[in-house]
Design the sequence.
């Protein structure tokens, strides 16, 4: 059992949870994730590892309530326990001294961006960050990313803070005065698709962290398969990071919608029970 040490609401439907998991904390690295279950009969869901302490034996995860499992997870309190958890999973980010690194974060993609940005800054890179959300209330890790970044640009869909527009509009603002050596683009799949199309126009090498449907996280089930450069990969063991300009985005978006109706019914059902 994995005890919840701390819980904090960070957006209208978003939470940051600190979990006692010393074995995971010992080997966690930027870019990796974990898979957990809330109950014995529950599904397994992947979540990014945002932060960790090897000496204190904890990890932090962030999530937004989008369905049954994240809803149940949001109802757990400090002192409660998560029934099982496995990690760290996936390949860690390649942390090198590239020069100038742009981080393009949409919504809860900021949770995945934060540890990578910190590591890149520590390596001596110049860090430029675009943080986007639907409105100012949905911006997460703004203070942390501001501290980590040489330049931080905010975009909101409704214009309630920063530039009115999307992450790709913030990228255009950066390109007016900066030369980017490599970009990391993390967020909703549709956001990554259109933002990476923008980086392609400017010949900027771009890495994305993909979020396909995932079950076991060890490469056995095959549900997380993605097409990259015309070849099939499993995001859990071959990724989660891939070359954005080689991803078959239309196929990924199609697969993400396979179980939308079932997910909606499950969420509505649990809400009625509550």
Sequence:
């Amino acid at each position: 059992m994995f005890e919840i040490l701390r819980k904090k609401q960070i957006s209208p439907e978003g939470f940051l949870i600190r979990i006692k998991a010393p074995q995971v904390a010992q080997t966690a690295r930027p870019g990796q994730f974990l898979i957990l279950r809330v109950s014995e009969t529950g599904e397994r869901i992947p979540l990014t590892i945002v932060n960790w302490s090897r000496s204190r034996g904890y990890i932090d995860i962030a999530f937004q309530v989008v369905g049954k499992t994240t809803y149940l997870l949001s109802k757990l309190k400090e002192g409660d326990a998560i029934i099982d958890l496995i990690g760290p999973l996936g390949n860690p980010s390649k942390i090198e001294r590239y020069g100038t690194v742009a981080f393009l974060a949409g919504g809860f993609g900021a949770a995945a961006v934060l540890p990578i940005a910190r590591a890149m800054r520590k390596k001596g890179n110049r860090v430029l960050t675009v943080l986007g959300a639907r409105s100012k209330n949905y911006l997460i890790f703004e203070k942390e990313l501001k501290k980590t970044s040489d330049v931080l640009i905010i975009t909101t869909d409704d214009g309630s803070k920063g530039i009115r527009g999307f992450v790709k509009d913030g990228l255009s603002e950066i390109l007016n005065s900066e030369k980017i050596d490599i970009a990391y683009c993390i967020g909703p799949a549709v956001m990554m698709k259109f933002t990476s199309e923008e980086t392609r126009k400017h010949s900027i090498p771009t890495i994305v962290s993909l979020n396909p449907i995932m079950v076991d996280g060890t490469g056995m089930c095959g549900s997380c398969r993605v097409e990259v450069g015309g070849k099939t990969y499993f995001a859990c063991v071959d990724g989660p990071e891939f070359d954005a300009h080689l991803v078959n985005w239309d196929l990924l978006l199609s697969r993400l919608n396979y179980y939308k109706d079932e997910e909606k019914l499950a969420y509505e059902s649990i809400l009625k029970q509550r």
